[in-house]
Amino acid sequence: MCGIIAAASNRNVGKLLVQGLHKMEYRGYDSAGIALHQDESIAHLRTVGKVQLLEEKMIAEKPKSKLGIAHTRWA
Q: Which pTM does this prediction carry?
């Protein structure tokens, strides 16, 4: 089963999207990813494993955006 969440706001949505992925997390996932719209590009981060690994990558890279989409994939 897969899960998809999107957000648009006047504030940074990265943390909100990761929190949404955590709420959808049921068992272990194969991968998780996030795409955030930035001025002239799209920041995208992917990890293999649980959502926690994506959250750690978000903390390390600190992408900022007011519009984004995130997903989990479980096979």
A: 0.86
